[in-house]
Structure formats: C-alpha cells, structure tokens
C-alpha cells in the first residue's frame, strides 16, 4: 500500500528513536556476549612513556611516532593488539625511519615489562608498513617520507621475521586438518 507524501514518515522521525536505541542495545549485548571488547585503546600515553624512557628525539622520532599512533586507526591493529604493543611498534618504526635504531627496544629486552612479545610487535610493524606502502595518501606521515624508506624498513623486518620464524598474524586460530573429509572413522 502506497502512502501519499504527506503521510510518509522520514527516517529521522522521533517515533523511530526508542526502537532504534533498543536495537542498538541488543546488538551491543550480542557482540559483548560473543566476546567483543568495546573498550577503546589509546596508545598515546604509553607511547610517550616509552619515548621518554628511550630518550628519543621529540621533534623527529617522537612526533612521527605520535602521528603513527593516529594513523594506526586506519588498520585493524587497535582491535588486535594491546596499547603497549601499539606504542612500542610506533616508537620502533619511527626510529627505524629516521635511522636512529634503539637496540634495546628492537631486541625486546623490555617486552616483559610491557606485557608484549616480539611477534606481536612485528605484526603491528608490518601492519603499519602495509598502510604506508599501499595507502600513503590517506595517512598523516606517509607522504613525509620516501616510499623507498618504508620498503627498506619492511625488507629488514621481513628478514628478521623469517630468521626467527615469526608468524605474520599472531592471533590466527589453530585449525586441525582432518584427512577423513568430515566422516568419522
């Protein structure tokens, strides 16, 4: 049945407000019950602590690392990693871009203190490098540095990951491969 334009209701009409809130509440409840975490993760505070701890140059490495932490929201990293992992990755990648290597950080000597691991940091570094090599125009710092710089850093990190057998994705589910094609034996 067709209504006349005068009888039609717009999508933002007040009569839809309460049912809309109920549906959003139910969706949120379903996601939370399945384990989805709605807490926002902001790596900026730990990033500043880590940068201060390793005495990085505030104007180059520090500022770039901070902007990287903002660019990181253009990836899935905030859903996959902890704030300390994200902060460490931003500081390390920024230092590598400016060729100011932080040996203690790259070696992972303080990872236990920050409750992270090298494979998690490596995954975050590679996610950021994917962003900077494929979507430079959509980032804060992508155009500030040459593409060759990002590629050189990526090659070094890929070599390290290969040498240490780090998986590309640390949270991948372990699947049991069945040779019986689903039938019980």
How would you classify the quaternary structure?
Answer: single chain
What distance separates the N and C termini? 58 Å
Which bin fits the share of residues in helices?
40-55%
Strands, total number = 0
Cα gyration radius (Å): 22 Å
Nearest-integer average pLDDT: 85
- Name the poorly predicted regions: none
Q: Strand-residue fraction?
A: under 5%
What is the H/E order? HHHHHHHH
Structure class: mainly alpha
Total of DSSP H or I helical runs spanning 4+ residues: 8
What overall geometry do the principal axes of the alpha carbons give?
elongated
Largest sheet report: none
Description:
With 185 residues, the protein is an all-alpha fold. It contains 8 helices and no strands. The mean pLDDT is 85.
Furnish the topology, listing elements before pairings.
Blueprint (H helix, E strand, L loop, with lengths): L16 H17 L10 H10 L4 H14 L5 H4 L2 H15 L5 H5 L10 H17 L12 H17 L22
Helix pairs in contact: 2-3, 2-5, 3-5, 5-7, 7-8
